[in-house]
Amino acid sequence: MRTIAAALAFALLASPAFAKSKSKGPRAGQFCPKASVGTTSQDAKGDALECKASKKGKPRWAKK
């Protein structure tokens, strides 16, 4: 029983370390807000991205 409690305590303390980190800006192929359609931005590598509608009409970041 103590082993299970210790494992649970470790899992609860370690869970933030395994959490997904926040995105650092747009990436090609990701969705962008409808308000951003027609605008440009840069990704983490410095490439220029433009928010435009995909073939299905959903706004996505695309390399310029």
In short:
The chain is of the alpha+beta class and 64 residues long.
Tags for this entry?
64 residues, alpha+beta, three-stranded antiparallel sheet, 27% helix
Task: Reconstruct the topology from this structure.
Layout (H helix, E strand, L loop, with lengths): L1 H17 L21 E3 L5 E6 L5 E5 L1
Antiparallel strand pairs: 1-2, 2-3
Structural features, described:
The chain has 64 residues and is an alpha+beta fold. The chain has a domain of 39 residues. The protein is 27% helix and 22% strand. The chain has a three-stranded antiparallel sheet, with no helix packed on it. It is elongated and about 60 Å long. The termini are far apart.
Strand line-up in the sheet with most strands: 1-2-3
**Backbone shape:** elongated
Largest sheet: 3 strands, antiparallel
Radius of gyration: 20 Å
Count every helix, treating DSSP H or I runs of 4 or more residues as helices: 1
- Helicity level, as a percent range? 25-40%
Low-confidence stretches: none
- Structural class comes to alpha+beta
Order of SSEs, N→C? Answer: HEEE
Cα end-to-end separation: 58 Å
Average pLDDT works out at 83
Q: Please count the beta strands (DSSP E, at least 2 residues each).
A: 3
- What assembly state would you assign to the polypeptide chains in this entry? single chain
Percent strand: 15-25%
